[in-house]
Write a structure and sequence with these properties.
Number of helices: 1
CATH topology: Gyrase A, domain 2
Number of strands: 4
Family: Belongs to the archaeal Rpo11/eukaryotic RPB11/RPC19 RNA polymerase subunit family.
Strand order of the largest sheet: 1-2-4-3
Helix content: 10-25%
Keywords: DNA-directed RNA polymerase, Transcription
Protein name: DNA-directed RNA polymerase RBP11-like dimerisation domain-containing protein
Mean pLDDT: 86
Number of domains: 1
Largest sheet: 4 strands, antiparallel
Organism: Gossypium tomentosum
Order of helices and strands: EEHEE
InterPro entries: RBP11-like (IPR036603), RBP11-like_dimer (IPR009025), RNA_pol_Rpb11_13-16kDa_CS (IPR008193), RNAP_AC19 (IPR033898)
Structural class: alpha+beta
CATH class: Alpha Beta
Strand content: 35-45%
Shape: flat
CATH architecture: 2-Layer Sandwich
């Protein structure tokens, strides 16, 4: 599930259900290896919930028009 504004295509927050630090840290590490990603981090809203929020911000790339 994606949360956030549809007007800003350079940032989004994704919520993963039934996951924990294990997958979140792997996703964060992998995305931060991409030079187009300016920020990627995650948070666990509450320790008793099996849910992870992952925030991704990217550089703005102009799309070519055909």
């Amino acid at each position: 599930m994606e949360h956030g504004s549809f007007t800003d295509n350079s940032a989004a927050t994704f919520s993963l259900a039934d996951e924990d630090h294990t997958i979140a840290n792997a996703v964060r590490f992998t995305l931060n290896q991409d030079p187009r990603v300016t920020f990627c981090g995650y948070s666990i809203p509450h320790p008793s919930e099996a849910r992870v929020n992952i925030r991704v911000q990217t550089t703005v790339i102009q799309q070519e028009r055909y």
